[in-house]
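Hi support team,

I submitted a single chain yesterday and got back a structure, but I'm not sure I'm reading the token output correctly. Could someone confirm the output below corresponds to the sequence I sent? I've pasted both exactly as they appear in my results page.

Thanks,
R.
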Amino acid sequence: MSSRPDHHYDVIIVGGGPAGIFAALELARHADLRVLLLEKGADISERRCPARINGSCSHCSPCDITTGWGGAGAFSDGKLTLTAEVGGWLGEYVVGSAMTSLIAYVDETYRRFGAPERLYGDDSETFEKWSDLAARQGLRLVRSPVRHLGTERAAGVMAAMKAELAGKVRIVTDTAVTQILTTPVAGQHRRRAADAGMGRAMAGRVTGVMTAWGDAYESPAVIVAPGREGSGWLTTEAERLGIPLISNAVDIGVRVEVPAVVTNVITDELYEPKLLFTSLHFEDQVRTFCMNPHGVVCTESWGDAVTVNGHSYADAGRKTANTNFALLVSTRFTEPFKEPLEYGKSIARLANMLGKDILVQRLGDLLSGHRTTPEKLRRSVVEPTLRAATPGDLAFALPYRHLRDLIDMLDVLDALLPGVGGRDTLLYGAEVKFYSSRLALDPTLQTPVAGLYAVGDGAGVTRGLVQASASGLVAARAVVGAYADRA
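Hi R., thanks for writing in. Yes, this is the structure output for that exact sequence:
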């Protein structure tokens, strides 16, 4: 391994998404630490996705929507959901008031870098009103105050954070990390690990990382935050290092698009209602996710699979006449199956095979067992915002169980918000949320490999901007504490 001074650091961060950025911001407060951040994708000023112009995925490698400075969050709708109830599983590691304080700190930081002051869904009377209405239809409304950045503002916030780190953290973009480097440790450390229930992998200590360019960087502390796009790589590395993995659920469903007038009654007050439902036929959990008032439907590329997503702008001049949101069915597989990511990708690939990446179908056609044709789509009251989607039949791509669950959910949503279940409601597929296998972690998010921390969506710990950002803080503070203990 190289001993060049510019290849040795006190801390290395892998990934420049929200988790990696917040880890860097925290570490930058300590001028005595040499910090390196490596990002697989391009700098935010160089991220230009053709699909954002013509709606059609060009299969760029790496994907400019999911990789690059700011991660997938840079060009997302930019929702800061300020609750521990949704957005991941960080609350299993950080509990009670500590979690509340973390979320408040993350919120304050985003506001410092340009997030708006307006907060939706924090009025108790409004929440109770909608909670009661939802309960009458068998839906549970989750209290989730939301601060909406908007797609164009989210990128600006991430760029401002990068400017803050200039001169404090070395940031290298367009550089993928291919391997986590480790070395064995002494028997006493091994015994302590076993006593703590961490397993055999604590026989290793992290020493650095290797990049695709063949450069080895040394460090006694590595924080991996590869995002969802890098989750497969991290899972492979964890298996190689002997780190135990826990399979998370996989969420599969569709993106729903309706006239905004159908949903304005609730989005004007809550912006993004988080609604949970237990399906009537299979008793699976179905949920709304990522609601975008007056937004647009878009695509994401995950290697050889293209999925659908959505976002909306804060600028009134860029708003559309439609609202879109995801309906997702959560499935947690048990032994012997342990490939939830591959399962989700296989469904996405099937939809890609049947259409040109994304299929779109009118709800009325799905219910009557007919394929949506271009002619039917032209007659639709709802004009699709993802023009590149192929009219087709989702019944050929989604499993029956998922379709039945989604139809059950649309029925009750139509009772709550009349019009959601209309004939011309558009369903885009497939939408898949890949929550990578979660590594075995302690309360500081350290793995059984000493000095190696795993954070964010790519580590299976979070699934949203706020908790991803907070997880980066947890690991960074643990690293700072470890250095203080050795001082």
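A quick pointer for reading it: The chain is about 30% helix and 25% strand. Let us know if anything else looks off.

Best,
Support desk
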